[in-house]
From TrEMBL:
InterPro entries on file: Spore_III_D (IPR014208), Tscrpt_reg_HTH_DeoR_CS (IPR018356)
UniProt xrefs under Pfam families: SpoIIID
Coiled-coil stretches noted in the UniProt entry, renumbered to this chain: none
GO MF entries: DNA binding; DNA-binding transcription factor activity
Protein name, entry field: Putative DeoR family transcriptional regulator (Stage III sporulation protein D)
Origin species: Natranaerovirga pectinivora
Keywords for this protein: DNA-binding, Transcription, Transcription regulation
Amino acid sequence: MKQYIEERAIDIANYIIEANATVRQTAKKFGISKSTVHKDVTERLTLINPSLAMKARKVLDVNKSERHIRGGLATKEKYMSLTQNTKSSIY
């Protein structure tokens, strides 16, 4: 494996752990795709640093288990905003 890929995988894992970041947030921060983030953490990092991979994986698993809640809150905010804009234009 190339050196820069190994370094990126370690940097990604450290960011996920420190920032409690999601795959999407991490991908945006590093300018790479979500699938690359996932592959770096689940496959590549396991070969490089298994203990770091486990820590990052725990954070991603928690985020995955909570994503339906975050999605529901985002949808609620969206429609609350639309309702408020509609009310203000009526009056």
